[in-house]
Structures are given as C-alpha cells and as structure tokens.
Amino acid sequence: MSDTTATTEPVTLHHELESIWRTPPGLGRLSAVNHTIVGRRFIIAAFTFFAIGGVLAMLIRAQLATPNSAFVGPDVYNQIFTMHGTVMMFLFAIPLFEGLSIYFLPKMLGARDLAFPRLSAFGFYCYIFGGSILIVAMIAGYAPDSGWFMYTPLSSGRYSPGINADVWLLGVTFVEISAVAAAVEFTVSILKFRAPGMSLARMPLFAWYILVTSGMMLVGFPPLILGSILLELERAFDLPFFDPTRGGDPLLWQHLFWLFGHPEVYIIFLPAAGVISTILPVLVGRDILGYAWIVVAIVAMGFLSFGLWVHHMFTVGIPHLAQAFFSAASVLVAIPTAVQIFLWIGTLMAGRPRMSVPMLYLLGFFFVFVCGGLTGVMLAIVPFDWQAHDTHFVVAHLHYVLVGGFVFPMLAAAYYWLPHFTGRQPLYGVGKVAFWLIFIGFNTTFLIMHLTGLLGMPRRYYTYAPEFGWTGLNLISSVGGFVMTMGFALFAVDMFAQARFGRRAARNPWNAGSLEWATATPPPSYGFASLPAVSSRSPLRDRPDLGSELAAGGGYLAGTRNDWQETLVVEMATGKPQHIAILPQPTFLPLATAAAIGVFVLSLLFKVYLLSLAVVPAVLVMFLLWTRATGAEIDRGPLPVGHGLDLPIHAEVPHPASWWAMLFLLVANATLFGSLAFGALFLWLVAPGWPPPALVELPLLKAAGLAAALVVASAAGHLGLAPLAKRDRPSELGLVLAALGHAVAAGLAIWICVADIPAPRSHAYLAVTAALIGYVALHAGIGLVLALFTLYRNRAGYVSSRRSGDLRTACLWHDYTALTGLAAVALVYLLPVLVTFRDAQP
C-alpha cells in the first residue's frame, strides 16, 4: 500500500512484513539492526567472554591451590587477575543484560523494535571491538596488570610503562560507548515505545528495572569515562591529574572510579532482579506481591546507590564523619533490597512452586545472594572493614553478591526463555546435574574464602608461604572452583543440545501473562504482525488468544505502506498513542562507524596521533551519513494506524525520539562535566603539592567574548525556530548566527588553551584548567557541526512548521553548551580565588 494501513489477509500480511523487516543473508547479516538478531549476538558474545573469564579464574585457583606455586609468575598472575575482573565486569555482566533487554524489551512492551535499532547494532560492534582489543592484548602478553580498578599511581606511566594500562583505559572506554548507547536506547524505548494503553502503572516490572538501571548508567558511567580520559592524558601527554608531586592526587582516581564502581554493583543486580520478578510469579502460578512497593524499592536503590562510593575507601584516610555517613548509607541501601526479597519470598509462599530447573536457580539465588548481602552489611561497618579490607573476605563477598545476584538469575532466565529463542522445549535431566555442580562448587570455593580472608590472606597476592596456615583452605577452594567449572561446562553443553535437539515447544509453554509470549517462537523479524492494545499488567493471561488475534491482524498497524518499518510511539505516562515511528532498514553504517572509532582507539594505543586526528573527520562523516534515512521532505499529515485512529509520522512531531535521546545523552554529558568540576574542586581542597607555580589570569576580553559567543549560539538556535509557526520556514539568519557563535566560541577556547594556560604539565591546577576550557572547545565544535547540519537540512527541504524536530534537537545541544561553557569559565575564574584562600589557611 502507499499511504494507508488496512487489515490484510494474515498470510499476505506476514509475507509483506517479512519482506520489509528481514535481514539480508550472507554478508548482509553484518548490516543487521533488528533487535532480535542484535540481542542474540550480545548474549552469545557475553557468554563467550564469560567462558574466557572462567578460564582465567581457574588459572588463579590453580596458582593459589598450593603455597609457593610456580604455576605462573607474578607478572602473568597480575595480568590474569586483572583480566578476570575486567572481563567479568565489563565484557560479561553488563553486555549480557543489555542483550537480554535488547531482545525482550520490545516484545514485552508490545513494540516491533527499540527506538534506535542502528544504535543497538553500533553498540554491539563497539563492544566486540573493545573486548577484542583486551583479549588480543592478553594473548600477546600485553594485558593490563594493575587490577580491574586500575588504581593510580600503580597504573601511571612511571610505574606501568608500556601499553598494558593503555589497553585497559582505551579498550574499556570503547566498551563504555556501547553501555551509554544502550542506556539512551533503553530509556527512550521504555518511556515512549510501548503498546497503546500500556501506562507506566501497567508496565512489566522488567521494564521498570531496566529503566532505573539505564538511568543509573547515564549517571554512573561518565565518571569512569572521565577518569579513564584523564589518566590516559596523564600517561600520553604527562598532564599530572593524579601525580601528587605536581598537585594531583591518586585518590581522585578512586573517587571517580567508585562513583561508577559501587552503582555498578546495582546496575548488574537490578536487571537480574527484574528477571526474578518476571519469571518467579509464572513459576509459582500467581501475581507478584507488592507491584507498587517493588517499583518504589527499585527507584530507591537507584538513588541510594550513588551515596555509597566511599564505602570502598574507608582505609584511605578520609575523615571519620564522612566514614560514618557512608557507613550508614551502606546499611540503608539494604532496606529496598530486603523489600524486594521479602516480596519474592511472599510470592513464593503464596503460590505453588514448580521445581523446574529455573526454580532451582532461583532458590540458589536466594541462598547465595542473601549470604552476600549479610557480609555486605558487615563490610559497611567501618571497624570491621578496616580488618577485612583487601583480604579474600572481600573477594568472597563480591562473588556471593555478583554470582548470586546476577549469574544464578541469568541461568534461570536461560532455561525459562530458551523456548522463546529456539522454539524448543528444555529437557531437564542434565540441567539439574549442572545446577548442583555449580551450586556446590561455588559455595565450596567462596564460603571457604571467607575463612582465608579472616585469617589474613590478602587479595591479589600471587603466592603465600605454608606457615601462614592457608594451604588446606586454598586447596579446598580450588577444588570447588573446578567443580563449579564442570557445572558451567555442562550448562553450555545442555543449552546447545536443547537448542538443536529439544522437542518443539508451544507458543506459551509456561502459561505466562507477559507480551513476549504473544509472538511466535522463535519470533519473526517483525515481532508482532499487529500491535496489541493493553488494559492490564498481564494482557496475555487476560486474553489467552491474543497472540493469534495479533497474528491475524487484529491490532494496530495491521498492514504495510511505503516499505516502512513502523511501530507506535505513546505518551510517556498514560500510554496514549501519539505518532508513528519509521525505523531504519538494515545498514552497514553501524559497523563502519564502530570500525572507524576502533581505528581511532588503536591509533591512540600505539601513539600514532596524526592518524587519530585524521580519523576524527571520518567518524564525524559516518555519523552524519546516518541522517540520510531520517526526516521527511514533505508533510504527509495524520495517517491511519487502525481502529479508527490517525497519527502523524515521527518527522512531523516537535519532540521525536531523537529529541528525547539528545536530552538523556546530555544528562550523561552533564554528569561527566560535573565529575570534571568535582575533580577540580577536590584537588584544590585536599591534594598535596599546592599552591601551583602559576595562576591562570584569564583575559577578561577573551572570557567575555567566549561567554557572549556561547549565549549568541544558544539564542540564535531558538531564533531560527521562532518564525516556523507563521511562515512555515525557520529563520536562516538564526541558523547562521548559531554556527558563527559556536565557531567563535571554539576558536576563543582553543586560543585560551594555547596562549593563556602556562605549562599545563607543571601542575594539576593548570591541567584541570586546560581540561575545562578544552571541554568548552570540544562542545562548541560539535555545536558548530550541528548548526551547519540544521542549515543543510533546511536548505534541502527537511524543515517545516510540522517538521521541526532537527532544529529542536540541535537547540538542546546549543543550550547545554552555553550553560556548561558559562559554568566552566566561572570555575576557571573561581579557582585562583580558591587557591589564594587555601594558601591563606594555617
């Protein structure tokens, strides 16, 4: 059809949808952007990295099984334990829940795909390339060896020469691009891409968990990204952010890392908790207890998790009052966790559990995670933490929390959702054996490790003497580790065998009420042949024939037009349909863009900085090419979507999904800027080696010009929008002024960095000042590109009174750049005053 959507014969409808949504075969599969394919790829890659991390763990246990072991030397051991932690935290845990969310969220929410399918594919390739850099470096003997937390000064250029630390800093930051992309993707998709009628109060709990997790990622990941950038700048260009001899402070790295690192624990746990809240009620045959209380607990955990980062720094010499505050906060976060656990237990007791393999893993979760939570409360008490800090007790606690709180629920999810992925029914004989091997092996390994920690065995030591009395306990732990590994190997064999040879499964084998089971299993590329209307939290339980009804074209968008990949966008709170989103077709652009960024990262790794500069325009061009498939050159007006409803397409609404994506991306960006300002004030307040040798006297004329240019760029962006309603065209003068304002601001910021900040290598104050002004220059440069882009879109006919989304999205960037630029200039002026004030104190 051309511009109408009508109910078609079911067979014809499915053929038409498949021809539009399918991914090309052969090499064309590298162009896949469909959430089902990308989600599967994430999951398979994450389990592959999990296997690599498991092998590294067994090497650690083999080394520690006996005293004075010569299995590996200290240098190799340092690389092994660093890579084990890095792989498990950055390459397994977060990507696994990303993959699960990419695969299931659209199906649970009643949509055909996520908001930005190309962004998901781009994130996958960034993840694969970044992870490959780390693994190849390990095979070549250049793996990072300073611990997965990369504490300075050990990871600085003086104590870690070579590229080992650079591999971590650049590889992990590359992977973090994937995580931030996923956070933006999930946030917009959950809030806007839902079935009609699915209000926030009817949304699946899994979506609530991922929504809060995504918000935490937007706020929690930028401090680590900033810390990695600053440390790489110190290693590459000798800017002394963390060097105490030149006004830096190693504790700044710890603050930035743990501002990410402690929320990271909950970022990992919350998606697993979402899995539990989804499958536990199905396995016991009743609704979850306390839906609203669980939502409140999720949000509370999200907020409280950001007040705990100093929990990891009790032994670094912070004031006792701060220790007391963070100790209390660390205990307080146990309350929302306990609320969820008690509601899960209540649901379990109120229902009739089926002792299937998923239920076994959930019961294993309860035992292991609760033990980990109890030891977490112990470590939140400062005097105990002083005794157990950096011992194997902390290692045991971490594994009880992360394996119990993430791995066990994810293994339950694997068995529960296997019929959805493969269309085949699990056979549980082998699965039960694998569970008991994992459960017994895990507790044998890490329960004993609590004792070795209490007996004083430090973490990260590659060997020990027999007279310390740890030999027998370490041997038992190592044996348990190999038993657990056998269980995981058996799990992998079981998954493969069931996927290939299991019996065919019914569409909804668990009699679940959530929408993912309303699709065919395995699902087609378009998910739903027509989109459902939702009136409860369990739509499939209320209407068991809903899947067949949707397959027959009984829902919204039950037809095709213009070869568009269509799904609906709804009002955030109520779920009322607002407009039609036209999603992009398969394309190689995500792969090419990620590859270009990969070349940029490798050029930085090998210090080929001229190549780095040359690649930046290529990356920029790649991203601009993404826009060719967006927007519209004519006004179409409202189009029929079925059931008597007409809606506009996304190009004809003021706030399309791209506007929301920019808004949430700027939230992450603001966190990064706030972390940079925090770093400047932290160094001023506590770092040794102050006062600096010179203060920056920012010329008033340049500073005023920079501030004025930023304000002009922001105001001009809105000036460009002003005439749209009256004459259907923007003010081209406003668009030109926005570009000029950003150009002047970028030029002045660069001029200030070059001419007015003396010797930034000499002191951290000067380096931080250069970083603040450099931040302004970078954002003004990007603002210039966006302003020129909107000017081009207007000239090309993509802008009208209906089609103003590009301009409004660019205005968000213009406003943000002006606000942060003014704040950066004010802080640069304030720092010399603060330095004088600190210097005047006794």
TrEMBL record:
Enzyme Commission number(s): 7.1.1.9
Alphabetized Pfam families for the sequence: COX1
First-tier enzyme category under EC: translocase
Subcellular location: Cell membrane
Domain Cytochrome oxidase subunit I profile: 15-535
Alphabetized InterPro entries for the sequence: Cyt_c_oxase-like_su1_dom (IPR023616), Cyt_c_oxase-like_su1_sf (IPR036927), Cyt_C_Oxase_1 (IPR000883), Cyt_c_Oxase_su1_BS (IPR023615), Cyt_c_oxidase-like_su3 (IPR000298), Cyt_c_oxidase_su1_bac (IPR014241), Cyt_c_oxidase_su3-like_sf (IPR035973), Cyt_c_oxidase_su3_a-hlx (IPR013833)
Pathway linked to the protein: Energy metabolism; oxidative phosphorylation
Annotated GO CC locations: plasma membrane
GO molecular function: cytochrome-c oxidase activity; heme binding; metal ion binding
GO biological process, one term: electron transport coupled proton transport
Family affiliation: Belongs to the heme-copper respiratory oxidase family.
Primary residence: membrane
Keywords from the named record: Cell membrane, Copper, Electron transport, Heme, Iron, Membrane, Metal-binding, Respiratory chain, Translocase, Transmembrane, Transmembrane helix, Transport
Sequence intervals crossing the membrane: 42-60, 80-104, 124-143, 167-193, 205-231, 265-284, 291-312, 324-348, 360-382, 394-418, 430-455, 475-497, 580-602, 608-626, 659-687, 699-721, 733-752, 764-792, 813-835
Limits of the Heme-copper oxidase subunit III family profile domain: 577-833
Species assigned in the record: Aurantimonas endophytica
Record membrane topology: Multi-pass membrane protein
Protein known as: cytochrome-c oxidase
Catalytic activity: 4 Fe(II)-[cytochrome c] + O2 + 8 H(+)(in) = 4 Fe(III)-[cytochrome c] + 2 H2O + 4 H(+)(out)
